[in-house]
Amino acid sequence: MSETTDTFVPKPSLPPPSGSVGITYWVRSRLFDGPVNSLLTLGAIWLLASTLIPLIDWAVIEAHFIGTDPNLCRTGGACWLFVDERLRFFVYGFYPDGQLWRVNLVLGAAVLAIGYLAIPNLPGKRWVVPAAIVGLPVLTILFMHGGVFGLPIVATDQWSGLTLTLVLSVVGIVAALPLGIVLALGRRSQMPAVRIICVVFIEVWRGVPLISVLFMASVMLPLFLPEGMQFSKVLRAMIGIVMFESAYMAEVVRGGLQAIPRGQFEAAAALGLGYWRTMALVVLPQALKLVIPGIVNTFIALFKDTTLVLIIGLFDVLATIHATIVDPEWPDIAPEGYIFAAMVFWVFCFGMSRYSQALERKLHTGHKRN
Q1: Residue 292 in contact with residue 357, Cβ under 8 Å?
Q2: Nearest CA to 357 among 277, 285, 295?
C-alpha cells in the first residue's frame, strides 16, 4: 500500500485592485482627498493657468528668436534677439576678441576636470582633485593674464562677464574651504592664543556684510601695502571674498567636528595617532561627509554673492546685463536680460546642488535606518 503525500504549491500573488494603483488613484488620494484638498487643488490649478499661460505666450509663442533688427521687438512678446546679440559681451565682457581662445581653454579645462570627477568608476580621481585644485588657478593666471609663452598681457580690469563670475567663484571655493577647515580646528584648539585668534577672525568677518568687506578690500587694502606695490581690483575682490566666506565655512566645518563622537578621538589616541594624523585620517573625513549640504550651501551663496563686485567697479555677468539693457536701440528688454541672468545662476546652482546630493548618496551620509 503506497502512501500519497500532498505537496502544497502556492498560487501566484494576485495583482492589487485597479482602484488602488495608477494615476487615477494617485490623483484621487493626493489631490482630491476631501472637500478642502479638492478646493485647494482647484485653486492651485486656476492660479497656475492664469500665470503660466500668459507667461508661455509671452516667452515662447509670441517671442522673437531669429533676426538682428531691434524693431522686431516692438510688436510684443519676448525679445530673445537681444540675448543672442549681446551673448559675447555677457560671457567674455571686455576681454579682447583675438584672445578669447585663452578663456575658452581655461573654461574647457575646468569642464573636463568637473566632468571627470562627476562620472563614476573612473580611475585616478584621488590625483585629479589636487591637480585640479592647484592646476586650474595656475592655468587661469598663466593664460588669462598672459605675459608668458609669448602671450600678450590682458589686464584683470578687462576680465568681466560670466568669465569674471566663474573666476571669482572658483578661487573663492578653492581657497575658502581649506582656510575654513584650519579656522574650525583652531577654534577648537586647546591653546588659548590660537583659539582666541580664530574666534576673533571668524566673528569679525561674520559680523560685517560682504559689501563692506569689498569696499574695505578695494579702498583700505592698498593703504597697508608697501610703497610701490599695487593689487588689481580683481585680486582685492578675491581676497575679500575668500576672507569673508572662510569664516562661514569654518562654522560649517565646526558643526561637523562637534557631531563626531568622542569615542573616535579616543580610538585614534589608543592607536597612537597624534593630533594631525587623527584629524586627517579619522575625524575630518567623517566630519566633512556630515556637512556636505552645508558646504555646498556656502558654495552656492558664494557664487551668487559675486554679483556684489559691481559696487567696486567690476563687471560680472549681472553687471554686463544691467549695462546693456539701457541701450536705446533695444526697447524694453530688461525682463529678457534679467531672466537670462536668473537662468545662468540657476543652472550653476542647481548643478552644484545635484552633484552634492549624488556625492551624499555615494558616501552614504544620510544615516538612514534599515
Answers
A1: no
A2: 295
How far is it, in rounded angstroms, from Cα 89 to Cα 94?
A: 7
Q: Give yes or no for a contact between 59 and 78, defined as CB atoms under 8 angstroms apart.
A: yes
Question: Grid cell 569674471 — which residue?
Answer: 164
Task: Provide the Cα torsion 189, 195, 198, 202; round to 10°.
Answer: 100
Of 29-33, 34-38, 142-146, 328-332, the least confident:
328-332
Best CA proximity match to 218, nearest among 205, 237, 204: 237
Q: Where are the domains of the chain?
A: 87-363
Please give the model's pTM, rounded to 2 decimal places. Answer: 0.81
User: What cell numbers appear for 198 in the block?
Assistant: 580664530
Reply yes or no on domain 87-363 having CATH 1.10.3720.10. Answer: yes
Q: How distant is the alpha carbon of residue 33 from its chain centre?
A: 39
Angle at 297 between CA 294 and CA 303, to 5 degrees: 145
CA distance 248 to 176: 9
